[in-house]
Sequence to fold (362 residues):
Amino acid sequence: VCANCHGNGQQVRGRFNLTTFRTMVRGGDSGPPWVPGKSDNSLLLKKLKGTADGQRMPVGRPPLSDEQIEKFAKWIDEGATYDAADVNQNVTEVAAVAKAKLATHAELCADRAVLAAKNWRLVMPDHAADQLETKDFLVLGNVGDAYLEDYAKLADSLVPRVRKLFRASSSDPVVKGRMTMYFFDRKYDYGEFGQMVEKRSLPLSWRSHWRFSTVDAYGVTCPPDDDRDALAAMLAEQIAGVYIASCGTSPSWFSHGTARAATAKLFPGDDRVRSWTAMLPEVKSHLKKADDFLTGNLGPEELTVAEYSFAAMLMGDSRRFNRLLGSLREGTPFDNAFRQAYGDTPAKIAEIWAARTIRRRR
Fold:
């Protein structure tokens, strides 16, 4: 409600901007919004209670309840600290993440279904989606009911294989809140998903990708014609990637690389796996440092190959890899979990990876 006039609406009144915590702390024309530890002396509380000069907040809306105002007061009295990692992150995103973390599986399923419908309208405003649900997936597409049902069955059949590969519990949902699967019958529509939903241009060679956040989890696919094995490999990569990303907080290189390494284990004959392997020598020749792929100092295609190869090496030591996953599931920060499992930092282990690869080339 407050952000409609102070950050996420069309204007920022009184120069008090609630878009991020950093801008919030600055205050506006009337000064700082709060005094940590002293809610009674804080302008924010006075405006919410209507005891400060000027209009009571929120303007044109019913006053907040005493219970809601007391939550603000308690937060200020306890120091007005900020628990999220990035003070520059949009507070609406912070709130959405907090809500998703607290939600039950069923509640998050419902919220993600709303997001899926919104995303579909952005891409296909004049074409209603065919839709069905399974235990682990919400499936939407414009490929026809028969194909959509077949694709959903294929995705379901891959879940036990991904669970087994990562020793994931069979008693819990593979991903809390379920995963949305989008299927488009044209590459143009697939590209529009990138433009309209993700605000980026997808590489022309892509037919499939995935994304995970605490709020949303999905895979997007333009199925290849009459190649069920290739489609199965694409879906396996999506499921594996979303699962790994959901195990605590890990860097992108780890979740994406592990997803591709999992694809290679499950579908070693897949054309993409062959191409990743074939491209590795060329990618290695472009590395200035062994850990360039960890810091994003590679192009998209080269990054794909390096992440895959490094993750495949990590998975090659199943004892250490399973220890890493176990720590992540327990909430251990990634850097700590990695060091506990492999005895050093990813950058140092990348040097071992680079040396091994060079020896094989020779």
Summary: The chain has 14 helices and five strands. The longest strand covers residues 137-141. The mean pLDDT is 90. The CA atoms of residues 16 and 28 lie 4 Å apart.
